[in-house]
Amino acid sequence: MTADDTFSRLDDDDYPAYTMGRAADMLGTTQNFLRAIGEHRLITPLRSEGGHRRYSRYQLRIAARARELVDQGTPVEAACRIIILEDQLEEAQRINAEHHRSAALHTAAT
């Protein structure tokens, strides 16, 4: 692997670049918090060859959102469910907007 390959991977939001300890430090939380949101299926860290959890920047953003909710008094399980529902709503809105654009193009073409 070349240095260029390494840097391009670090630019990838989905590349599991962070160990559990580093991820917890970056978020200002505990490793137990990361385990808890994993148990509630909010994020599923990849595993290194040695079985250690590895997190991507995308996963850290989701974990940071969960931490915000928990810091506001929301139980971890509820925070995970809220984020999952927010993500589903965002996806449904994106699909709906695509259908509206497609319908508008179809109407304009006829």
User: What would the CATH topology be?
Assistant: Multidrug-efflux Transporter Regulator, Chain: A, Domain 2
Strand order of the largest sheet: 1-3-2
Rg, nearest Å: 18 Å
Helix content: 55-70%
Beta-strand portion reads: 5-15%
Largest sheet: 3 strands, antiparallel
Average pLDDT for all residues: 91
Shape field? extended
Describe the structure.
GO terms for molecular function: DNA binding. This is DNA-binding transcriptional MerR regulator. InterPro entries: DNA-bd_dom_put_sf, MerR-type_HTH_dom. The model has no long low-confidence stretch (mean pLDDT 91). A hairpin with a 5-residue loop joins strand 2 and strand 3. With 110 residues, the protein is mostly helical. The protein is 67% helix and 6% strand. The protein has a three-stranded antiparallel β-sheet with strand order 1-3-2. Helix 4 crosses helix 5. It has five helices and three strands; from the N terminus they run αβααββαα. The termini are far apart. The protein has a single domain, classed as Multidrug-efflux Transporter Regulator, Chain: A, Domain 2 (Orthogonal Bundle), CATH 1.10.1660.
